[in-house]
Amino acid sequence: MQKREKQLLGVMAVALMVGAYMYVSAPGKPAPAPVATGASKVVVDEVAKAMDQARLTPQQAYRLGLLADNATGNPFYGGSGGISLEEDRSLGGPGAEGPEFVYSGYMKLGKKLFAVLNGVEYAIGDELAEGGYRVQGIDRNFVILERTDGSTGRKLTRRVPLVEDDTDKIRIRVVKKR
User: Fold this and answer.
1) Mean pLDDT over residues 111-127, rounded?
2) Is the pLDDT of residue 78 over 50?
3) Pair 48, 118 in one domain
4) Is the pTM of this model over 0.85?
5) Is pLDDT larger for residue 178 or for residue 114?
6) Which of 60, 140, 149, 170 has its CA 20 to 30 A from that of 87?
7) How far apart are CA 138 and CA 96, in angstroms?
C-alpha cells in the first residue's frame, strides 16, 4: 500500500473509534470536555500536509492515464487486434488436427509477392482454399497465416516455415573433358 492509502485508513479507523465510543457511551452523561483542542488541529494539519506531498507528478498521472486508456477487462486477452501467442493446432504442424499447410516457396511478380502453399499461389490478404485462413505476411523463410476464432473472436496467428524438398532441386554436374 502507498503511504497516502495508509494515512486514509488511519483517519478512517480513528473516525470509526470515535463513532463507536459515542454510540456506546451512556446517553444521559454529557460528553467529556476535550483535553486539548490544539492537539487535534495539529494532527489534522499533519494529515493534510502528508496528502499534499503524496500527490502524483504529471509524469505519473500521464502514465496512469495511458494504462487506463489501454486497459482490458481480461488481462490475458490481447484485444481485438492483438496477436495471440497460442499455437493454433488447426493450422498444421506436429500434433495438428486440421489441414496441414506446406510452404514450398515464394514468387515476386512486379511489386506483388506470392506464397506457394500446398502447391497453390496466394498473395497477401488472400483466403486459403481450406478453413478460412488468410495470408498476412510473406517472407522467404516463412508465411504468416491468420484466422479469427468464431467462438471467442480472437485472431490466431501462426508462422508456417519454408519446407525444402530435395526431390525438386535440380542437380547440375559439371564434367571436364580431357
Assistant:
1) 89
2) no
3) no
4) no
5) 114
6) 140
7) 22
Domain membership of residue 112 as a residue range: 89-168
Mention every residue, 6+ apart, whose C-beta is less than 8 A from residue 25: 31
Asked whether residue 20 is domain-assigned, the answer is: yes
Give the mean pLDDT of 154-164.
84
Question: Mind spelling out the 3-state secondary structure of 151-172?
Answer: CCCCEEEEEEEECCCHHHCCCC
Q: CB neighbours of 82 closer than 8 A, spacing ≥ 6?
A: 154, 155
* Residues forming a β-bridge with 53: none
My answer on whether 7 and 49 are in the same domain is yes
| Rg, C-alpha atoms of the chain | 35
Joined together, the cell numbers standing for residue 170 give 535440380
- Measured CA to CA, the distance from residue 40 to residue 32 in angstroms comes to 15
84 lies in some domain: no
Report residue 14 as a C-alpha cell: 480513528
- How far apart are alpha carbons 136 and 10 in whole angstroms? 56
Together in a domain, 108 and 164: yes
For residues 143 and 157, the answer to whether their CB atoms sit within 8 Å is no
Residue 77 domain-assigned (yes or no): no
- Whether 161 is in a domain gets the answer yes
CATH number, domain of 119, equals: 2.30.30.830
At residue 169, the pLDDT reads 55
